[in-house]
Amino acid sequence: MNLFDVYPLFNINIVKGFGCTVWDDKGTSYLDLYGGHAVISIGHGHPYYIKKVNAQLQQLGFYSNSVINPLQQQLAKKLGKASGYDDYQLFLVNSGAEANENCLKLASFKTGRKRILSASRAFHGRTSLAVEVTDNPQIVAPINDNHHVTFLPLNDLELWEKELAKGDVCACIIECIQGVGGIRMATKAFAQGLQAACKRYGTILICDEIQCGYGRSGKFFAHEWLDIKPDLISVAKGIANGFPMGGVLISPDFKAVYGQLGTTFGGNHLACAAALAVLDVLEAEKLIENACVIGDYLLTELAQMQLSGKHIVEVRGRGLMIGIELDIPHKDVRERLIDHHYIFTGCASTNILRLLPPLCLRKDEADRFLSALAEVLKA
Ligand SMILES: Cc1ncc(COP(=O)(O)O)c(C=O)c1O
């Protein structure tokens, strides 16, 4: 059997990782500023994480959601405390798309409505509703194109308010920092205006924190920078440092109904052990503060590079979620960074480098990237 060939691949086989470094099967080491697509939050191969996941596996890997799982309760408590959402409820799933799928279902169940507002350039995943609110017709199959969604430019509050005033919108879904869309940021005025308009018209506000959340922006959630409090928050990626997991944080205004939501694997014992270990390490090693400090340093140095060098058009982002927009395609730049400097970066569109490193990135590692990028752009 062949693999279904949907991924354009680098010809590299990563076999080992530690911190922000990964090694291929030939023993070459790479600096990982991509974090396996923003998934590695506390760093590769963290000893505490390995110990906790291992210990849980020795005990019990999985049992279903038909019995009490104290690890889920511990996780809800710890996540509530870490995020400042103590009074919210937690529903655990397996991926980001599934988290958004459940957010949208909850919003529709609660309001009885079917329309959704989403942002231009948004990416929310590939399952049926998640892909429908994703602004990329190439990945929306005809069966998913059910005309539930109106796409509007991020930050154009007037347009969003006009649609909301029609009174038939169940949810607005936004990424406060768009990832796939190229690290584009919602403004405070937009986010606060949108929250107020949602309240006015009985619409649910969903923040997709799958990529920008869990400490990546230098605060636990990116929407904290904008001083808003969404009704529903979706999380995934960094939540379990590579163990497949997602979740929805649900405001106390939502009443749980037996059987309305469900999943076989979601919130299983092993996933919870991984997620608990992540929260322990984030706190013990002050990784969110580190993301803020190293992120600020990178943003400042990159802005300087934009002024003094060639090819950088704009630098955007917060914490360790950084977009470097170029006036040339990113393809050659990324290849040179890998081939000549052994540095992995992410990308967006055709001309944006996207940095999504583990949150434990050190200053010397940031410096290594800065000098490599300067050299590549000069060449
Ligand atoms: C903002 C955002 N939402 C949703 C998703 C989908 O997550 P998953 O691939 O885990 O389904 C992603 C994945 O890149 C994302 O960046």
From TrEMBL:
Q: Which PANTHER family match?
A: ACETYLORNITHINE AMINOTRANSFERASE, MITOCHONDRIAL, AMINOTRANSFERASE CLASS III
At the top level of its lineage, which domain of life is listed? Bacteria
Name any cofactors this protein relies on: pyridoxal 5'-phosphate
Regarding protein family, the annotation reads: Belongs to the class-III pyridoxal-phosphate-dependent aminotransferase family.
Query: Could you cite one Gene Ontology molecular function of this protein?
Result: transaminase activity
**InterPro entries in the record:** Aminotrans_3, Aminotrans_3_PPA_site, Class-III_PLP-dep_AT, PyrdxlP-dep_Trfase, PyrdxlP-dep_Trfase_major, PyrdxlP-dep_Trfase_small
Q: Which UniProt keywords apply?
A: Aminotransferase, Pyridoxal phosphate, Transferase
Question: This chain belongs to which protein, by name?
Answer: Putative acetylornithine transaminase
> What PROSITE patterns would the database entry show?
AA_TRANSFER_CLASS_3
